[in-house]
Amino acid sequence: MNNIVLRAETIHKSFNLGPSPVNILKGISLSAEQGELLSICGPSGAGKSTLLNVLGGLSKPSFGKVFMDGIDIYALSDRDLSKLRGKKIGTVFQFYNLLSDFTALENVIIPAMIQGVNGRGKAKELLSDLGLKDRFNHKPGELSGGEQQRVALARALVNEPDILLADEPTGNLDMENTDILFRLIENINRTRGQAIIIVTHNMELARRTKRVVEIVDGCVVKS
Q: Which domains does the chain have, with CATH numbers?
């Protein structure tokens, strides 16, 4: 039997940006199995990043439900949802979101510290696996864009989450670093077993994933 770690049912999301609400997501349903590598693609403004925020427990849908391991996450209290996110979800952002005053190693350790875990050994292991063994003590401003994104990837993995969400992780990288990062993501998927969902407008990258979910105007048109 397939092990579904994430399931979204009939997700709608609206924002009040004027006299009437703007409907961004219009009844999207999808699921991800343990160890699956899938991409969400579509044109700019289709609702990809909004959907990822809903799936990641960061933005409550206007209607619909999101389940992680059978738990209705938006039925949880804010405190319990925060705990669940910390344990089960790792997120990689397009703009890295690293803390500029902290070293690469410290940036990776922080999510583990929040969970009350000594993550130093795990952080060193991840950074080494991602080719950053000589960059432990470098601050973000001393790293290239590709290196910063690999630090962000290590940070997302330090708590060994069941699900990795990546929002345009190669959007600020050149072709060489895009390929390097994506190969690392593919390797993580093979060796660590996380379900990985990548939002991208790059169809060439999307076709390298096991499944492509295409969104247009807030609706799934291909899955």
A: 36-59+85-222 (3.40.50.300)
